[in-house]
Amino acid sequence: MSTLGQMKRESRISGLSLFWDIVTIQPPAALSPPLTQESVKLGRLIAQLRRVIRMKQFDAAERAGIARSSASRIEQGDGTVAFGLVLRYLNAISPGTTLKELLNETVQSVAVHPAPEKRLRVRSKHNKS
Questions:
Q1: What pLDDT score was predicted for residue 78?
Q2: Sign of the C-alpha dihedral, residues 95, 100, 103, 105?
Q3: What's the whole-number mean pLDDT along residues 17-45?
Q4: What are the two backbone dihedrals, phi and then psi, of residue 6, each rounded to the nearest 5 degrees?
Q5: N or C, fewer C-beta in 10 Å, the chain?
């Protein structure tokens, strides 16, 4: 294996030599703690905005043309989500809202209204006699 992380393998087919480069794919580097905090803050603000306007995550993802799992990762602050997806998701929730407005919390619905509390599902207990 060379210092570039590549290995060449030779194969002989009817007298011809073919070389393939086998490239080792490295996972993306983890974000530094300050960047992770910023990513989580952005995700929380986007989720807060979506909840304030009472839009379901599935509907927002569908409007943005992304998978619901990607929407969930955005709202959780996953720093590995492509930046373009974050922008499309934000635009689907609140067209015309900029990242600057969202991060400065100057978006009218986020600044004025706190995020509604997450409701827990409560199942009624039926006594079987």
A1: 94
A2: negative
A3: 73
A4: -120, 150
A5: C
